[in-house]
Amino acid sequence: MDRFIFLTFDGLSRGAVYAAFALSLVLIWRAARIVNFAQGAMAVATAYAGYSVATATGSYWLGFAVALVGGLLLGAGVERVVMRFVDHSSPLNGVVVALGLVLVIQAVLGMIYGNEFRPAGAPFSRDAFVVGGVALLSRFDLWVFAAVIAVVALLVLLFTRTAVGLRMRAAAFAPDVSRLLGVNVGGMLTLGWALAAAVGSLAGMLVIPTELGLHPNAMDIVFVSAFTAAVVGGLDSAIGAVVGGVIVGLLLSYVSGYLGATVAPIAVLVLLLVVLLGRPGGLFGSVKARAA
Amino acid sequence: MTALLEVKGLTAGYGAAPVLHDIDLSIEQGQIVAVMGANGAGKTTLLRTLSGLVKPTSGEIRLDGADLRTTKVEQMVRRGIAHVPEGRGVVTELTVDENLRLGGLWRSDKADARKALDEVYELFEPLARRKRHPGHQLSGGERQMLALGRALIGRPRLMLLDEPSLGLAPRVIAQIMALLRDLRNSTGMTVLLVEQNVRSALSIADIGVVMSLGRVVTRNDAATLRTDDELRHAYLGF
Ligand SMILES: Nc1ncnc2c1ncn2[C@@H]1O[C@H](COP(=O)(O)OP(=O)(O)OP(=O)(O)O)[C@@H](O)[C@H]1O
Ligand SMILES: [Mg+2]
Predict the structure, then answer these.
(1) Which domain holds residue A168?
(2) Is the residue at A213 inside a domain?
(3) Does the distance separating the beta carbons of B101 and A182 come in below 8 Å?
(4) Which of A100, A180, A184, B138 is paired with A273 by a 20 to 30 Å CA distance?
(5) What is the 3-state secondary structure (H, E, C) of chain A?
């Protein structure tokens, strides 16, 4: 029972990060109908920038801010400089370009920082509080929960309560109609990419200290989990991304705890397959529009 | 009196071959102009070119004498042009209220946008009862009300309407036509109305324009088109 409780808490804190990262995939999917396979590499790039600043200045939080602002800028840049010029008539084009971007970003990071793991410190202690002999959560885990909950709340507020959120949703659903109503659709797309990449950067800053450290490929495995989380949730739904993230986090934790860490990646793929076969639209996929 | 909208020698299309050929059209402030013609005549393309969604290859489009060809689509609404597209353009994923508010987001006069929103709810009672419903749940008539109402929130000077009667019951069509005429009479709004439903359109129009194969083949007083059997036979086929 103790083990189960331990694994549950461990799964929840992993799940929170997957949820945040899945959310960044959902944001781009909703804005542009592209699965951004470069999201992991982009997050790593901004984490490198963040940790460089943190090391140079001695302030973790300054580095953290740089990583998030870097995410905003990198996301906007990728949309403006690359994705805008991709012919989106075939959905595969965007995917291929994103994969190309992964190679470019990882190669550049390798050239600048080298291909070895670099230490990535955490802003809070990662020692878990022990309750009744069971190691539960660390201060860092609590920070992860707080950060993810805050970002979800802010996104919900942005999209449902603000004019710019309404513009972003309208631009994604009906670009021509939105333009006729005065919405700068291109600008909304750029903003969507910027926000998504910043959320991805946040997820990177939350997960990298818990893994082996900074490395150009540091987010590759996380990407697979988060992508699964997003698909489980339906790709279209923010709530779905959060629920999917928690499901994947718990699954990974239980499977590696009871069956061994080597089985965990297979479990994620099985989950992906089961959801795609059983409910291709995901758990929270959007309702089909009434035919005109 | 100079025309509100002045189109001269307009040629436009989607690829290499133009769809619209050498269109001339002049509309005065407060007029209701009906554009009619067979399927594929280029009526929708004409409206899309006027609102900037399709770029003209040659010719002039002037609003109050000012060139419109370089105006971006998203600026058109600020110039006073509202385009209600074919199929109505309700954003089906958004609620009724969100659709309507979208129509006023560009406005700097927030108080008047608010007032216009209230007016639309008063004008279209069924919309007020379905504020929180997503667009995809609305009936065809409700969607038409929503699209019209959303355009009205911008208090347009020129309304471009693409087949508002499509798929609606005769009674609802009559209501919409009466509404357009009332709006014109009360606000001086100018209306360019594309319609397959010739009788309804001519019942409120001042001017009737018939298009065929991307050209304007006749332009006449609506009263003349309504009463002159020979003309109507030749151009409208009934
Ligand atoms: N997006 C497009 N790309 C290429 N050709 C198009 C496009 N839209 C319309 N066309 C062509 O332009 C011509 C005019 O079409 P348009 O939609 O303007 O006609 P319409 O008069 O509005 O017809 P309807 O009464 O059926 O709505 C048609 O031959 C059509 O095939
Ligand atoms: Mg048409």
Answers:
(1) 18-129+136-291
(2) yes
(3) no
(4) A100
(5) CHHHHHHHHHHHHHHHHHHHHHHHHHHHHHHHCCCCCCHHHHHHHHHHHHHHHHHHHCCHHHHHHHHHHHHHHHHHHHHHHHHHHCCCCCHHHHHHHHHHHHHHHHHHHHHHHCCCCECCCCCCCCCEEEECCEEEEEHHHHHHHHHHHHHHHHHHHHHHHCHHHHHHHHHHHCHHHHHHCCCCHHHHHHHHHHHHHHHHHHHHHHHHHHCCCECCCCCHHHHHHHHHHHHHHCCCCHHHHHHHHHHHHHHHHHHHHHCCHHHHHHHHHHHHHHHHHHCCCCCCCCCCCCCC
